[in-house]
Amino acid sequence: MADNAQRLKTRHLTMMGLGSAVGAGLFLGVGLGVQVSGTSVLISYAVAGAFVAIIMWMLGEMAAARPSLGSFSTYAGQAFGGWARFTMGWLYWFMLVMVMGAEITGAAAIISSWFGVAPWIPALIAVVFFAVVNFAAVRGFGEFEFWFAIIKVAVIIGFLLIGLLMLFGALPGLDLDRAGANFTENFMPNGMPGFAAGLLAVAFAFGGIELVTIAAAESEDPANNVATAVRAVIFRIMVFYIGSVLVITMVLPFASIRDADVAADSPFTLVLEAAQVPFTAGFMEVIIALALLSAFNAQIYATSRLVFDMARDGSAPKLLLKRNNSGSPVAAVTLSMIFAFGSVALQYWNPPGLLAFLFNAVGGCLLVIWIFIVCSYLKLHPILKERGELSTLRVIGFPWLPLFTLLAIAALLILMLLDPTARNQVVAVAVLTLALVVVSFLVPSVRRNDVPA
């Protein structure tokens, strides 16, 4: 879609992966897991990180062997046929479009409060601006998202350094005796049920890394770039999340760590205030707004490239193949923008039951996508190996590691069914997935374009 001079580089892919998984959910929502499972949430993050790392390892192997803008939806189609390609592609598109609507709403609320204007004004400006960014050549998008991600990563690294300085007494705010007692006494305050709830709270924290495998298809050297980016992103994100939670749980009284709606209540803000860093609430507001806008920008890219790729084989309308002179899929970008606006409007309208159902479905979409990634890998790995298509990025322990991962997903599914709130997510995404499967069999072009392995 772009000549080599305009393609993404490894640094773009790496920072896009980091930026897409490090967002407002970390800065505002990290306290939720601590609240329900205490400091044992560190184990939850380690388990969730390792779990997602294995899934990304499998996806990375397939992406390095067969780079595709469709990523896991393409591999699902190659493994199981057009219905799987259609279902996975549109399920992911739906998930990101709904999340895009929530993110632009959150960013607009913060920015509008700075200037005393109605939220729709910064929302409209942001949408127009990011549409222009995504209509440009992919290299421009990559450069823009690279610097967006640099800011977020720099904040996390700075936060960890401040925590280290507090630990050695160079900054105020940390009493080691109190920190030790705080950590041990609140390790698992609600027992195993609380730990299970904490695991659910952080299970999808690393979602977003899969964007790397979509973007890799527009990079200079897809096979090598995706291998390098996947290895780098997984390790760094685990360090960022676990390191941040460790600092938060050591510095703050347990009762003050909670899920935050505004920057002033963020655990990050409270830690920086304890270290007597000035202007913390305002600073974190800026960072959270940037995180939301960065995620919005990345998701426009991911949704547009995905449906563009699906249009090639009849899983999406051929109209979405339209590109501009820079190679950007303008029709696909426009579609994403229209539905993102629709998601925002839906939140204002808020019809009884519908919005709750849609956002519950969003909560379970990653679970279905993970299942298909693992199953696709089980089917395709022997074929890729036999045909000599594998790159340097290879998963060990076939087939036992993928089968163990499926068991872990099944265990997570059982935990979700036992939790009243999470159960609604399972039901909603099951209904949505089944509906997409049915539609796939009703669309003639999907049946005609089954992609062989």
TrEMBL record:
<dbReference type="InterPro" id="IPR004841">
    <property type="entry name" value="AA-permease/SLC12A_dom"/>
</dbReference>
<dbReference type="GO" id="GO:0006865">
    <property type="term" value="P:amino acid transport"/>
</dbReference>
<keyword id="KW-0029">Amino-acid transport</keyword>
<feature type="transmembrane region" description="Helical">
    <location>
        <begin position="12"/>
        <end position="34"/>
    </location>
</feature>
<feature type="transmembrane region" description="Helical">
    <location>
        <begin position="398"/>
        <end position="418"/>
    </location>
</feature>
<feature type="domain" description="Amino acid permease/ SLC12A">
    <location>
        <begin position="12"/>
        <end position="441"/>
    </location>
</feature>
<feature type="transmembrane region" description="Helical">
    <location>
        <begin position="355"/>
        <end position="378"/>
    </location>
</feature>
<feature type="transmembrane region" description="Helical">
    <location>
        <begin position="90"/>
        <end position="111"/>
    </location>
</feature>
<protein>
    <submittedName>
        <fullName>Aromatic amino acid transport protein AroP</fullName>
    </submittedName>
</protein>
<feature type="transmembrane region" description="Helical">
    <location>
        <begin position="149"/>
        <end position="174"/>
    </location>
</feature>
<keyword id="KW-0472">Membrane</keyword>
<feature type="transmembrane region" description="Helical">
    <location>
        <begin position="238"/>
        <end position="257"/>
    </location>
</feature>
<dbReference type="GO" id="GO:0016020">
    <property type="term" value="C:membrane"/>
</dbReference>
<dbReference type="Pfam" id="PF00324">
    <property type="entry name" value="AA_permease"/>
</dbReference>
<dbReference type="GO" id="GO:0055085">
    <property type="term" value="P:transmembrane transport"/>
</dbReference>
<keyword id="KW-0813">Transport</keyword>
<feature type="transmembrane region" description="Helical">
    <location>
        <begin position="40"/>
        <end position="59"/>
    </location>
</feature>
<keyword id="KW-0812">Transmembrane</keyword>
<feature type="transmembrane region" description="Helical">
    <location>
        <begin position="424"/>
        <end position="443"/>
    </location>
</feature>
<feature type="transmembrane region" description="Helical">
    <location>
        <begin position="117"/>
        <end position="137"/>
    </location>
</feature>
<keyword id="KW-1133">Transmembrane helix</keyword>
<feature type="transmembrane region" description="Helical">
    <location>
        <begin position="194"/>
        <end position="217"/>
    </location>
</feature>
<feature type="transmembrane region" description="Helical">
    <location>
        <begin position="330"/>
        <end position="349"/>
    </location>
</feature>
<feature type="transmembrane region" description="Helical">
    <location>
        <begin position="277"/>
        <end position="296"/>
    </location>
</feature>
<comment type="similarity">
    <text>Belongs to the amino acid-polyamine-organocation (APC) superfamily. Amino acid transporter (AAT) (TC 2.A.3.1) family.</text>
</comment>
